[in-house]
């Protein structure tokens, strides 16, 4: 079994380029992940895009949002559009207090990882992509200009995602879903209790679950299990580590409990899942 490639980008930089200029990047044909954010802007409909083991037909004029750690692949030949990549550090420098586009576009596991803007929405988005590509190609790219363009682009994309002009903020004893998902991302391997998250959010566990059921129809435990299961699938399908090692890496003290958890969630034991879905040796 081949280890999945994991690519990086300079920690304080951004790349925006026409997709046609990167059509010879054959590595994107195979499952890979990276430690930076990526937006793939497809102008023409095309072959499938595989994102975390789900296959999506690529609609014309669509934008796919790929967060760090996601596993994806697609055939770049014949694709037209833009490729936008930027580091978490660059995103942090571009964001202002109150911005929540990171959750809506990159961390919302409950929606498809793409949007298809309407024609009147598309003009502004593609114009901003063009400006970023132009600035990146200049002799002396200005990071402050690029940060402004990136923030405007992500806010515009968030508006398309949400279907409204503003993002609802927590009210009446609520909390930020962005903050919660960031916490889950940071702690899912340590199997923190619901009470841990409750203390961090200054709410009771009962209140957190009430709000989550209202907003996304799931409990905190379900969100934790979904994130844990996603990482287990990634490791089993695309990694080389032994199942026992994966169990320990994911915070299970007893590998047998990991096997029971995985089978309960998927209907397969970890070894069965790897046999049926793993990459061929090579």
From TrEMBL:
<dbReference type="InterPro" id="IPR020449">
    <property type="entry name" value="Tscrpt_reg_AraC-type_HTH"/>
</dbReference>
<keyword id="KW-0010">Activator</keyword>
<dbReference type="InterPro" id="IPR018060">
    <property type="entry name" value="HTH_AraC"/>
</dbReference>
<dbReference type="InterPro" id="IPR003313">
    <property type="entry name" value="AraC-bd"/>
</dbReference>
<dbReference type="GO" id="GO:0003700">
    <property type="term" value="F:DNA-binding transcription factor activity"/>
</dbReference>
<keyword id="KW-0238">DNA-binding</keyword>
<dbReference type="InterPro" id="IPR037923">
    <property type="entry name" value="HTH-like"/>
</dbReference>
<dbReference type="Pfam" id="PF12833">
    <property type="entry name" value="HTH_18"/>
</dbReference>
<feature type="domain" description="HTH araC/xylS-type">
    <location>
        <begin position="178"/>
        <end position="276"/>
    </location>
</feature>
<protein>
    <submittedName>
        <fullName>Transcriptional regulator, AraC family</fullName>
    </submittedName>
</protein>
<dbReference type="InterPro" id="IPR009057">
    <property type="entry name" value="Homeodomain-like_sf"/>
</dbReference>
<dbReference type="Pfam" id="PF02311">
    <property type="entry name" value="AraC_binding"/>
</dbReference>
<keyword id="KW-0805">Transcription regulation</keyword>
<dbReference type="GO" id="GO:0043565">
    <property type="term" value="F:sequence-specific DNA binding"/>
</dbReference>
<keyword id="KW-0804">Transcription</keyword>
């Amino acid at each position: 079994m081949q280890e999945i490639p994991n690519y990086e980008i300079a920690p304080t930089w951004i790349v925006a380029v026409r997709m046609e200029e990167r059509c010879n990047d054959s590595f994107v044909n195979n499952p890979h992940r990276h430690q930076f954010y990526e937006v793939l802007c497809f102008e023409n409909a095309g072959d499938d895009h595989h994102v975390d083991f789900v296959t999506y037909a690529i609609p014309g004029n669509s934008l796919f949002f790929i967060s760090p750690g996601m596993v994806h692949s697609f055939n770049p030949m014949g694709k037209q559009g833009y490729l936008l990549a930027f580091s978490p550090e660059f995103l942090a420098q571009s964001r202002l207090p109150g911005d929540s586009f990171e959750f809506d576009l990159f961390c919302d596991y409950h929606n498809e990882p793409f949007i298809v803007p309407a024609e009147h929405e598309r003009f502004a988005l593609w114009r901003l992509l063009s400006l970023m590509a132009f600035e990146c190609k200049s002799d002396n790219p200005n990071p402050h200009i690029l940060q402004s363009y990136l923030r405007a682009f992500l806010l515009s994309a968030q508006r398309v995602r949400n279907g409204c002009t503003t993002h609802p903020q927590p009210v009446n004893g609520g909390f930020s879903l962005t903050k919660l998902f960031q916490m889950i991302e940071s702690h899912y391997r340590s199997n923190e209790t619901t009470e841990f998250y409750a203390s961090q959010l200054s709410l009771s566990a009962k209140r957190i679950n009430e709000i989550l059921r209202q907003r996304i129809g799931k409990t905190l435990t379900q969100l934790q299990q979904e994130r844990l299961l996603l990482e287990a699938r990634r490791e089993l399908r695309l990694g080389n580590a032994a199942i026992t090692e994966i169990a320990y890496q994911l915070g299970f003290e007893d590998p047998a409990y990991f096997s029971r958890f995985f089978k309960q969630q998927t209907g397969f034991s970890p070894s069965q899942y790897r046999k049926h879905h793993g990459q061929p040796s090579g």
